Structures are given as C-alpha cells and as structure tokens.
Amino acid sequence: MINQEKKLVELKNKLSEINDLEMSGALLNWDQSTYMPSGGAKARGRQMATLAKIAQEKLIDPAIGKLLDDLRPYEESLPYDSDDASLIRIARLDYERAIRVPPEFMLEYNLHSSDSYQTWAQARPENDFKKVQPYLEKTLELSRKYSDFFPGYEHIADPLIDVSDYGMKALTIRKLFKELRDQLVPIVNTITSQPPTDSSFLHKIYPEAQQLRFAEKVVRTLGYDFNRGRIDKTHHPFMTKFSLGDVRITTRVKEDYFGETIFSNIHESGHAMYEQGINLDYEATPLGTGTSSGVHESQSRTWENLVGRSREFWIYFFPFLKEEFPEQLRGITLEQFYRGINKVERSLIRTDADEVTYNLHVMLRFDLELALLEGKLSVRDLPEAWNDRYASDLNIKPTNDRDGVMQDVHWYGGFIGGAFQGYTLGNILSAQFYAAALKAHPQIPAEIKTGKFTQLHEWLNKNLYQYGRKFTADEIVKKATGSPLTINPYIQYLKTKYGELYDL
Amino acid sequence: MINQEKKLVELKNKLSEINDLEMSGALLNWDQSTYMPSGGAKARGRQMATLAKIAQEKLIDPAIGKLLDDLRPYEESLPYDSDDASLIRIARLDYERAIRVPPEFMLEYNLHSSDSYQTWAQARPENDFKKVQPYLEKTLELSRKYSDFFPGYEHIADPLIDVSDYGMKALTIRKLFKELRDQLVPIVNTITSQPPTDSSFLHKIYPEAQQLRFAEKVVRTLGYDFNRGRIDKTHHPFMTKFSLGDVRITTRVKEDYFGETIFSNIHESGHAMYEQGINLDYEATPLGTGTSSGVHESQSRTWENLVGRSREFWIYFFPFLKEEFPEQLRGITLEQFYRGINKVERSLIRTDADEVTYNLHVMLRFDLELALLEGKLSVRDLPEAWNDRYASDLNIKPTNDRDGVMQDVHWYGGFIGGAFQGYTLGNILSAQFYAAALKAHPQIPAEIKTGKFTQLHEWLNKNLYQYGRKFTADEIVKKATGSPLTINPYIQYLKTKYGELYDL
Q: CA-CA distance, B344 to B340, in Å (whole number)?
C-alpha cells in the first residue's frame, strides 16, 4: 500500500501543476476584464492560449493514465466517498474525457471560438446576423464533431451537456423542461394580464459609490468572505477563482436602476460562497470546485432569489437601504419595495428577466440547441425560429437580432449544446435544496428577518459546499435532499410566492 | 535557407511559449502585490513556482539547443545587428547559461530563497539579525555554488553579476567604484558641513488623492503611455511587464512627505518608458526587454533625477503644483522648492538617499558582497562590517540592524553577488546617455521648461529603447554615446548641479 500512496502523491503533484496552470489562466482572464490596459489585449489572448495548451498537454499525458490504472486497486480498497477514492475517480473522469479529443481538434476549436467571439462582439451592435452566420455554422459542425468523439451517446447533445452537467441527458432534460413550461406559461399569462406593478422608484438615480457600498455590506452579511475574495468592476459580472483562498466576484452598476448591482452581487457571491465552502484539503485537486453548472447556479439563485428577493430579507435590509437612499425611496413602503423587486413582465433579454419568466428564456434556447444539433433546424433559420419561440412562449416578438438571437455570448464563444440547461436546472435545484434546508431548520426565515444567515449557510456548507466535486449532481441532490431532482419544490415555491403577489 | 527559416519559426514559437509563462508569472506577482486577498497567498506562491519551473524546463529543452546549433550557419550569414541574428545570439546566451545550472539546484535555491525571504520579513521588524544569519550563510553557500557552475571566471562574483549586468566584471566595477567614491566622499563632507537646506514644506500634509493625481499627470506628460500601462498602489513601488503592450508601474503615498510618490512615480515610469520603447517586433522574444540592470536603472534615474529634479522641469510643473497644493506651498518660491527636493544629507536608508550620497550606500554593499564571496568576511561579522562602512563612507553609524544590514530585501530573497552594482552603474550611465542626448539636441533643457519631453524621449527611443536586448550594455553605450562607460559625465553633472546649490 505504501507504493500506492507514493503513486497517489505523484498523481496529486501532476494534477496540482495542471490546476496551477488553469488558475493562472483564470487570473489572466480576470485581469483582462478588470484592469488590463487596451494595449495588452493581443498578447493576453496568446498567453491564455499558451497556458490552456500546456495544461491540456499535461492532462493527456499517458503517465497520468498509467498512475490512474496503477491506483485502481487502491481506489477499490477504499470507501466510495473517501477523499482518496473520490480524487482518483474524478481525475479518471477528466482524463478519460480529455484523451478522447485530439489536440488538433482542440486547437482548431479554440482558434475558431476566438474568431467567432470577436466577430460576434462586432456584429451584435451592428445587428448583423449574416456576419456571424458562417461562424455559427462552423461552431455547429465542431459541436457535432466533438460529440462524435464520444460514440454511443443517446442524444448527440449528451457529450456536450456532460461537460458542464455531468450525467444529465438531453432527453431527460427535454421532458423535465416541457413539464416546467406547461406549468409556467399559464402562470405568466395570468400575471401579465393583471395591472403592472409599479417599480419606477427602482429607476431613480442611485449613485454608483453608494450602490457599491450597500451591495458590499449585503454580501458581507450573507457570509461572503473578503479575506478570501474581493469585488471589482467589469462589463459583465462574474465569479472566478484562483484558489480556494481567493474566490473573487465582479460587479457592474447602472445608476438608473437599483436592481442591477445588488442582485448581481448577491448572485455572484452565491457562486463564490459555494467555492469558499469547499473542503480546503481539496485545494489544487479536481475535487476542489463546484460539481456542475446546475448545482452551481442553484446556489447563485438561492442567494439571489430565494433569499435576496424574499420579504424576510428586506425586513432586515430595507431600513438600511432607506438610510443610504432616503430621497430615492421617500414614501416607499417595504411592501411596495418587495413588490417592485419581484415584478413579473414579458421581456426580450434573458439576463434582465424576473424569476417567473426567466426559465422560458432558457428553455427555448435549450430546445433550439437540440434542434440545431439534430439537424432539424439550420443556422440560417435560427433567427426566425428564435423569434417564433419568443412569440409562442413569452408572447413578445424581438424586432431585431441584437436583442434576439445575438443577445447571449454562449453560442458565439463556445459550443452549441450544453450552454444553457444549467440555468434552469439551477433554479429547479435551488428550491429543492432550500426546501431541504427549511425542513432541517424551520427557523431560517425568522433568522433572515434579523439579518442572520448562519443556519442556512451552515446547512449548505455541511450538505453541499464542502464536498466540491466529490459527488456528482445526481448524487449530491439525493444525499442532501433525500430525493432525486424534482420540479415540485420549485413550482410550489413560485406558486406560493407569486400567488401572494398576484392573483393566480 | 527555407529550412533555416522554418527552424527559426520553430525556435520563436518555443521562446514565445517560455515568455508567455514568464509574463503570466509576472502578472501573478503583480496581483499578489496589488489586489490579492490575504487568503490567496499560499496557493499563489505555489502557482508562481509552478510557472517558473515549467518555463525553466522548457528553456533547457535540448530541442532548443539543437535548433540553435542548426541555426548557426543562418545566423553567421546575417549581419550581427540584424533582428534574426540577434535573436539567435541572445537566445543562445540564455540557453547556455540555463543548461549549466542543474534543475535540482534551482529547486533548492528557490525553496531556500522563499524561506529566507519569509524569515527576513518577520525578523526585520524584530531587529533580529541572528534569525536571518543561518539563512544568509546558506545563501552565501548557494551563491558560491552557482558561480562554480561557470568555471573559468576571473572573480567568483562575475557569474552572478552576469545575470543582471551581462559582461561586467567584478574587478572592473570595484576599480570604477573606488574612483567614484574617492570623488564623492569629499563632496559629501563639504556639503554636509554647510548649514542644512530647509525642506520642511515637503513634510506638510499632502492628501493621497491629490498626490496621485499630480504624479499621474506628470508621468503622462513625460510620455508614459497609459494605453499600454497603468498605475496601482503597492507597499513598494516597482515596474512590471506582461507584454510590450502592457507595462505597469506601482506607487505608494506618504501623506507627510511630498517627495515619495512623485519621484518614485517618475523613477518607475522611466523603467516603463524604456520597455514601452522597445521594437514591437520583439514581443515575446528574448530581445523584448531591457538589456541590463545598469542600463535599465540609467533610464529610471534619467527621468527621476536628471529630468525630474532639474530646475527646468519645475519651471514648468511648479505652477501646477502650487495650484494643487496652495496651502502647503504658500510662500515657497520655485528656488526654495528646487533646493528642497535636492537637499543632500547623510542618512541610513539607501532608498531615501539623495543623488549625491546614494551611490555611497550602493558601493559599500557591493564591496561587502565581494568580501563575503571571497571568504574575507563571514556572515556573522557582516553587521559590524556594515556599520563600520557607514561610519567611514557616510560618517553616520546605524544604531540597529533593522535600519542597517537588514534594510534591503536583496540578499534575503536572492543571491549574494550581482544585487547592487546596477544601481550605481545606472547613475553613471544616466549622465553619459543624457550628455549624448544634449549634445545631439542642445535645446532639450529649453524644451523641458515648456513641459515638452519629445526630443529627449525620441532620442532615447531611437538610440537606446528600441533595441531591447539586441545589444549588450557595453555595445549600446558605445553605440549611443560614442564612448565606453565612463564616470566623467556623471561627476561633471554632480559637480555642476551641486556646485551651484552648495559651496563646493
């Protein structure tokens, strides 16, 4: 066994080196989005590509395969959920996926993605879908080719979905999403036929420095650890990580809309608190990150929506908010504020959508991805298909592609397939995890009213965050909630919350 | 020849990859000094070590040696100063130096340096030389060992000096420094026997934001390009580079001393303008950086002292300064200000020293380095030797080791040998280059009076900056000034300037 332990150390050293390269790449990317002067852009792209290439070369090193083979008896001698067995298991998963894809393909794909992204960034403001169409066609071809490196799939999207939501199948998700859509569309119709909620007070001028100060105070109170993180400004908010001791978020401000900074800050800090909660022993190993995009999104949405848009939350924070913005909120009651931040309306832009309509945006993208991959929809016909689905699902039709099919970066800088399902899976899971937390600690809402988030945060740390990638999404959902993934808690949550806000 | 050009491309690709790793490491270091939360420290050290290790492995790859051998006929077919021949020549120099040193030695050295640095950082505030002594002894041993990988040296310090000031020899520098010291000591004695200059107005309260704004305006006017750079705050100011398009400087503020931010900003922007001036074709090649620590320092000191502490400079900037700080400078004339910022006094701390005494600090360190390496001085006796030299050279005796032998990081985080000579070589060279620029463009001082720095900046770009490492220090000094390195212009400069300020 001593020999096995030596081999495990050897494996960990190799994996740590790969992790160091990936985390360095993440810092280069963070700097590019925050502080890099424009003159640095060209070299920065090359530098990030170099780090990614070396990390990839090191991951597919046959020496890793050999170590994984040699370690199989050791792994099998250990309990499934031991740290060592899990490390070997997850490392093998990554290795076996990586070696299926030829390096030349990755090179071609990376170069193409970069070109495609540049073209999109230019074409979107010009509303010029024709310009991106050939890139998207090539992306579709490359996405299909990627899947074909994993023969034996049930649906051609499955290998692409596996990358971010390991173990989820296209056909399962399609069925799940249909169920959800069938429930959501009538709710949206009922709500939007009622008089619109007044949220005009959210659109007064809220000065940047004050918004940033308030949002920072909020996420600090929620439990985002500033000794292991920080907030900087970027064009699009995101969470990024350079180690378990350095998990950063970024934010942006719209002075004429109060909701932007606060909710994106809470959202990103939800992602960050997940990463900050991971067992520190997993640092620089494949276990040291969130387990899937769906589970990750469940945490950003838990904190943003289930907590951050709850009445209890604002019972505590609204007085502080009024202190910070007395003019802007003069005469606005807690109840008006609560209704304002939970206003439901049909809209064109996914990232601006409310809780109820948001999933309709996501699910139509998912369906279009599948149709493209199945060959049932051509890229040329994509804008029309997009607009039709907005008309049928959301009863609103885009008048241009900029705010239509070109609004999200995902297809223009990555694969088609696997890009969107995580958002809705996350919403579904957020309610399922939260219901389990409430069952264990029914006093959580009462605590939140007093600005305490400890019980919730501790439950999440204990039942979810600490494990990192040790368990798959499927495994952790069952372990933490006692049930496989189900949409019932989510539907229940929406019906209760919005049934009280609107006439359902 | 087509085959040779293919090999050159191959070599460039390999060198670019190494450069990408080094520049990524520099960004990790910059982030550590500027924005990294404390929790990131542990992983960051490991990540920087990983990048350095991989870069080193790639540099000593025998495939590079093979390419360099294969490219010799091509190199010899080209003019010495052609870009391709220079690239091959400098790459060979780096390669041949790197392969002499066994990777295990570098590993041991890097681990030791890191421990030694940590110990110093703790021991210095505690004024505890005993704590660092064993580390310093080991550093001395490793420094000697490093030199012994380069047998045939004239002096054991030569291989260490070669790393930063390629081609300079310990015995040459020792002679040069003795000459300089013999001239400086009487000047310092004469000046410091006269009544001290009043500079108390520099020690009023100058608020941080205003100091930063003013210093930024100044370096922008000098020609530091903010599209290819930026300024952030750090504990110790430095210049760092991530590509020729991204050359950053850092600064710090002492609100009770006006001289700190402004002169360190000008100093670092001098380093940065050198890097920003390098031929962009040299990006990601061994040619794309300054040629030696002495030449680099000559540029920081040119801008800081020959320009930034000149009367002409303040003829232009003093009115703006008075506008920014009317209270602090009420009643202070340009002449008083000029004398204040050029006040000469005996002091203990190198980095706080004025132009005249500064080199005495540097040269005594250089002599002590040589004595340690030669075995004529033991580490145990170093503090006493240090204090004795301060007494004899500067007529002031340190009362503790914190502000004595432990004040500089260099010996505690790097080799003993090669650490200090660049500072004084830089001062000497700054005057030699500047004299050549003035000879070519006698109107430079008149231009500076009007806030124009174009002629000077262009002369430096054309005669020095653009070449990067294409020419060695020796070569570029002769090429740009028509003479080998000489202390005469520097002595002339000091005597003229300080002869006017004091009774010499």
A: 9
What's residue A283's pLDDT? 98
Task: Name the nearest CA neighbour of A492 among A339, A354, A306.
Answer: A306
Do the chains contact at B28 and A31, CB–CB below 8 Å? Answer: no
Whole-angstrom Cα distance, residue B115 to residue B127?
A: 18
Our CA angle for B130, B131, B136, nearest 5°, is 85
- Distance, in Å, from the CA atom of B322 to the CA atom of B309, rounded to the nearest integer, reads 17
Nearest-Cα distance to chain A for B72, in Å, is: 28
What does the alpha-carbon distance between residue B502 and residue B504 come to, in Å, rounded to a whole number? 6
Q: Which helix (H) or strand (E) holds A133?
A: helix A129-148
Chain A residues with beta carbon closer than 8 angstroms to that of B242: 40, 43-44, 47
Give me the residue label for tokens 């030791």: B112
Map out the domains of chain A as residue ranges. 2-100, 200-348+447-473
Please write the tens of the pLDDT for every residue from B258-291: 999 999 999 999 999 999 999 999 999 999 999 9
Could you tell me if A409 and A355 are in contact, meaning their C-beta atoms sit under 8 angstroms apart? no
Structure tokens at A336: 């008006």
What is the Cα–Cα distance from A156 to B59, expressed in whole angstroms? Answer: 43
Q: How far is A246 from chain B (nearest CA, A)?
A: 5
Q: Which two tokens stand for residue B412?
A: 């505690």
Degrees, nearest 5: CA angle A142-A51-B97: 140
Q: Which of B106-110, B143-147, B243-247 has the lowest mean pLDDT?
A: B106-110
Cβ of residue B4 closer than 8 Å to a chain A Cβ? no
3-class secondary structure, A403: coil
Known catalytic residues of B are 268
Q: Return the active site residues of A.
A: 268
Going by their DSSP bridges, the two strands B231-233 and B246-251 should be labelled as: parallel
Token match 């904190």: residue? A303
> Quick one: which of A7, A158, A160 has its CA closest to A91?
A7
A83-100 vs A41-59: helix crossing angle, rounded to 10: 110
Question: Which of A39, A51, A227 comes nearest B39 by C-beta?
Answer: A227
Got the DSSP string for A326-347? TTTTTT--HHHHHHHHT-----
Tell me phi and psi for residue B82, to 5 degrees: -70, 155
Residue B331 has a CB neighbour count (10 Å cut-off) of 6
Q: If you measure CA to CA, which chain B residue comes closest to A38?
A: B227
C-alpha span between A65 and A265 (Å, rounded): 41
Q: What is the mean pLDDT of residues A331-347?
A: 97
Q: At what angle do helices B103-123 and B129-148 cross, to 10 degrees?
A: 160
Contact A370, A170 (CB under 8 A): yes
Q: Give pLDDT, residue A490.
A: 98
Using one digit for the tens of pLDDT, what is the confidence trace for B383-431?
999 999 999 999 999 999 999 999 999 999 999 999 999 999 999 999 9
Interface size between A and B, measured as CB pairs under 8 A? 125
Token pair recorded at residue B145: 């060992």
Q: What is the pLDDT of residues B211-231, one digit of tens each?
A: 999 999 999 999 999 999 999
Q: What percent of chain B has pLDDT over 90?
A: 97
Would you say residue B1 has pLDDT above 80?
Answer: no
- Coil vs helix vs strand at B470: coil
What confidence tens digit (pLDDT) does each residue in A388-410 have?
A: 999 999 999 999 999 999 999 99
**Residues B59-118: tens digit of each pLDDT:** 999 999 999 999 999 999 999 999 999 999 999 999 999 999 998 999 899 889 988 998
Q: Give me the mean pLDDT over the B350-371 stretch.
A: 97
B43 to chain A: closest CA residue: A243
